[in-house]
Amino acid sequence: MIDSKTIERFMSKLKAVGDCWIWTGARAKSHGNHQYGRFNIGGSFIDNAHRASYRIFKGEIPKGMHVCHTCDNPLCVNPDHLFLGTPHDNHKDMVRKKRSSITNYISDENVAEIKRMYRTGFPRVTDVARQFNVHRFTIYRIINNKSRKDIVI
After folding, report:
1. Which residue, among 81, 109, 80, has the nearest Cα to 93 in the 3D structure?
2. Residue 95 pLDDT more than 80?
C-alpha cells in the first residue's frame, strides 16, 4: 500500500498537457534516447514514474511485466494511458506503431533504396519516412548505419 504522503508528492510533479500527465520531476535517460521520469517509492527504491503511477492508481505490477503507454509519450504518467504487457507485447506495440528503432521489418530492397536515395541527396527525412511508412528515426538509423549495416550499396 502506498501512503497518502507519497501520492501527494507524486501528484505535485505533474503537468497536464492535453490528455497526458507529463512528469516534471527527476528524469533518467534510458532505453535509447527516451527519457523516463524517476520517482522514489519506499525509501531508496527508484521506480520509473510511469511504473510508479501504475502502482499508485492500478496496483502492483507482476514480475516480468512492462508498463506500456497507449499515448507513446515516455514522460506521460496518466494511469488511463498505461497498460501492462510482456516484453514481447511491448515490442510488438512499438513495431506496430512504427516507433521501433529496430528496422528489421523493412525489406532489404527498401533499405537499399533508402541508402541510394540518401547518397544522391534525397528530400527531407520526414518525406522519405512517409514514403516508406516508417518513423523518421528509422530513416536516420538506416542512413547513419546505426541499424541494417548488413545492406551495403
Report:
1. 81
2. no
CA 62 remoteness from chain centre: 20
Q: To which residue does cell 502502482 refer?
A: 55
- Residue ranges per structural domain of the chain: 4-96, 102-153
What's this model's pTM, rounded to 2 decimal places? 0.63
CA 17 to chain centre: 18
Max Cα-Cα span within the chain: 60
Tell me which architecture the domain covering 4-96 has in CATH: Alpha-Beta Complex (3.90)
CA 65 to chain CA centroid, Å, is 16
Comparing CA positions, the residue from 41, 34, 32 lying closest to residue 13 is: 41
Residues 113-130 pLDDT 10s: 898 888 888 778 888 888
3-state class of 5 per DSSP?
Answer: helix
